[in-house]
Amino acid sequence: MHIRQAAHRILVVDDDVTVHRVVGLLLQREGYRVALASTGREAIESAVSEPPSLIILDLSLPDKSGLEVCQELRFWYRGPVVILSGSGEELMVIDALDAGADDYLTKPFRPSELLARIRALFRRYLSRQNGPGVIEAGDFLVDLARRRVVRKGREIRLTRTEFEILVLLAQNFEQVVTSKMILDRVWGPTREDYMQTLRVHMGHLRKKIEPKPGSPKYILTEPGVGYRMAVPQPVLHSVAS
């Protein structure tokens, strides 16, 4: 058992008791702490109550799909997600990765391969925060788990859609987020016809967070590309000699 591994808590989400038993024992033998969930709701509640270092997630759950669970977790969870599925179809793999998964493994799988992929993901995520936290984006504090936004000490109440848009922008602070990326994350990959809807929601969001919505300084439009959340630029005054 490695001391470093002993601190890692892995959440296994699957409604198959055999998977719970086999994967659970496999991970415990490697020194990992294991939590189990059989439904999407249980998975989210477990992740919020004690954020895991990594999540192993089945796509077929009794209450909601694994893709839905992954998308919901990705609004605040920053750790690795490994998908387990009985289907290895290319479209399914692509959908899982687009939903926020880091890796995809088809059942049945070799235990040694699962462990190797887990080790690789931990190496990749070594410098990242795993779990609910607060994003500091300029003047904003975005509490991912509690779904709260605060600017300069004042809480700003947003709708679910407005919050999801702001989170995506804050996670990519000072970087351009394309309109397609926002549409894919918030409305799904088949909603490219929602461009006008995105503009309407962006207008509502700016009214709530911008001192002058008509001249935004926090959420900037990158013409023909998308949007960028930024630090307001200081006004430079000329100095007479």
Number of helices: 9
**What percent strand?**
15-25%
How many strands in all?
12
CATH fold-level topology of the largest domain: Rossmann fold
Q: Architecture of the largest domain, CATH level 2?
A: 3-Layer(aba) Sandwich
Tell me, rounded to a whole number, the average pLDDT: 83
CATH C-level category of the largest domain = Alpha Beta
Q: If you compute it from the alpha carbons, what radius of gyration comes out, rounded to the nearest whole angstrom?
A: 21 Å
Distance N terminus to C terminus? 71 Å
Q: Would you identify the CATH H-level superfamily of the largest domain?
A: Response regulator
SSE series:
HEHEHEHEHEHEEEEHEHHEE
**Shape, per Cα inertia axes:** elongated
Name the structural class. Answer: alpha/beta
Q: How many domains comprise the coordinates? A: 2
Query: Which parts are unreliable, with pLDDT below 50 for 5 consecutive residues or more?
Result: 1-6, 127-132, 234-241
Question: How would you sum up this structure, described in words?
Answer:
The protein is of the alpha/beta class and 241 residues long. A five-stranded parallel beta sheet has the order 2-1-3-4-5, sandwiched between helices. A four-stranded antiparallel beta sheet has the order 6-7-8-9, covered by helices on one side. Helix 3 runs parallel beside helix 4 (66-73). The model is unreliable at 1-6, 127-132 and 234-241 (pLDDT under 50). The chain is elongated and about 60 Å long. The chain has helices spanning 3-6, 17-29, 40-49, 66-73, 90-98, 111-124, 160-171, 179-186, 195-209, and strands spanning 9-13, 33-37, 54-58, 81-85, 103-106, 134-137, 140-143, 148-151, 154-156, 176-178, 219-222, 226-229. It has two domains: 3-124, Rossmann fold (3-Layer(aba) Sandwich); 134-229, Winged helix-like DNA-binding domain superfamily/Winged helix DNA-binding domain (Arc Repressor Mutant, subunit A).
